[in-house]
Design brief:
single chain; alpha/beta; 42% helix
Length: 260
Amino acid sequence: MNILDKIIADKYKEVALRKQLIPAKQLEQSVLFNRKSPSLAQALSTSASGIIAEHKRRSPSKATINNNLNVQDVARGYEQAGVCGMSVLTDGKYFGGSLDDLLLARAAAQLPLLRKEFVIDTYQILEAKAYGADVILLIAAVLTREEIKSLSEFAKSLGLDVLLEVHNLEELQKSVMPSLDMLGVNNRNLKTFEVSLETSKSLSAEIPDDFVKVSESGISSIEAIKALQPYGYKGFLIGENFMKTDDPGASATEFIKQLT
């Protein structure tokens, strides 16, 4: 069983428990539920930098990244830096995140928020909407084509953007459908955790132009982004690079300044 299999097995148990604690009806009555979501896909398609900056305390591959920061300060810093969107990890067991992080980020900033989560159930999409997210992530490696279709269509019915993440050509080919806004290529091999930008480069030609192309993992330099832009990538998810500093907002500001 690799790490992704473990996470998903735990996620099924966690979601079953959450459903018992908070009924879907209660989520739909949230103050934020009827809020109109800004589009991350739109923001990326017109941006010169295309940065999606992440809030991440730890990860299975890197252990602790940064436990000392206040999520509101990070959100405000990213917004002032001029990032296109912010990704908020909400998985507790493996990444040290929570839905409260999403709520706090939402209270602190107006920019589009991505709920970075292992989505396996429409209930998690209701949670995303209720806690102030504008975008959900779907991971092709853990979902069938039918699941991707039903989850993405449900998200669109709530006015959310959908970012679908793939790791290889097989995942990409099973996933392309009109209910997606962005196609993200994860440069990290889930079995070995090795990272290579070649993954984004080789898959770029296979992604139809109707979708905003996003590259994820291993993007820590201006050079990496400059190398991917000619392949049509408009979005760049940057996780550890900013979070491992004392002031992610200032790091993001400096990074964007050099990039543009």
